[in-house]
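hey can u check if this looks right to u? its 100 residues, i copy pasted from the old doc so theres a chance i mangled smth
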Amino acid sequence: MKYKSQFHQYVHSTLTGVQYDELIGKFSSPKRFFYVMKNPKEAAHGELIMLSESLGVDTVQLMDEHKVATITLSPPEKDMHVRFRILTKKVNDLSALATV
């Protein structure tokens, strides 16, 4: 398969065939999906969240490692994702302590 970008290769290698097809279906059109695969920096906020859920990685990791949505999100939106990551980690840590 010819990949549009390294991010596209990552998505394709991370998901099963069925999951990959389902992800394409979640976008407004297949054309939009392949545009985002070619230009991950231009993903919309909702697309970032959708990719995060489908790939099983948090949004900050997608922004940091794959530059997803880095030019479309405003600084407050980026900060919100970082804060959400911190709060999620704290909740998970507290949950782990409660089960011990």
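The chain has a mean pLDDT of 93.
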